[in-house]
Amino acid sequence: MATKIYTKKAPDAIGPYSQAIVSHGLVFTSGQIAINPVTNTVEAVTIEEQTEQVIQNLKAVLAEAGTNLENAVKTTCFLADMDDFAAFNEIYGRYFTGKPARSCIAAKQLPKNVLVEVEVIAEL
After folding, report:
1. CB-based burial, 81-107: b 16+ in 10 Å, e otherwise
2. 47, 4 in Cβ contact below 8 A?
3. In this structure, are residues 51 and 110 in contact, taking their beta carbons and an 8 Å threshold?
4. Which residues are annotated as catalytic?
5. How many Å apart are CA 2 and CA 26, to the nearest integer?
6. Most CB atoms within 10 A, among 23, 26, 108, 113?
7. pLDDT for 16-73, tens place per residue?
8. How far is Cα 80 from Cα 113, in angstroms, rounded to an integer?
9. Is the dihedral of CA 36, 107, 67, 62 positive or negative?
């Protein structure tokens, strides 16, 4: 049976979905963007700042589910501009030290016109 995950330490879903779902020993997060959960706005401007906020949001959701970034097995990353790939990778690599499997694609447009969105699958 799937369990919905919710924490006030990450942004509320901006649509009809959950922050994450736990099923069969895995956590599936929804894509996180650079919304500050305290102000409910996108404050970060640069790809580096937005990536940091995205990762903080993911950490909060994973913690609520009982896991962390070290247990990530797969990430899917969306960039608004592939010219940001190196800067994104620099920040991403600081946190995903276990080197999970990953897909990284350019998206024509992301919610709220952010520069980056990341979703994670992690083991409990």
Report:
1. eeebeebbbebbeebbeeebeeebeee
2. no
3. no
4. 104
5. 10
6. 26
7. 999 999 999 999 999 999 999 999 999 999 999 999 999 999 999 999 999 999 999 9
8. 8
9. positive
